[in-house]
Amino acid sequence: MKAHILTGSKTEIAESVARLQGEIREAIVFVEEAVDSIPAEADIFAEMEPFTVKAGGADDSRESLYTRMEGE
Known about the structure:
- The model has no long low-confidence stretch (mean pLDDT 83).
- This protein has one domain (10-66).
- It is extended.
- The chain contains two helices and no strands.
- The chain is mostly helical.
């Protein structure tokens, strides 16, 4: 599988998709909304939540990031 990033107007993106060879199984589309229509407390990635990976146990604290591990 090969990933493509297509940018441009709706028409340009649609034309680019139509020219792609092979089977297209899914697409992620980002739609810009007018600034007035987005509530301040909106989580723009909430609808993608079902597609995210849930991994626990990682220590991403500042101290952990800047502390050398054994063998570094």
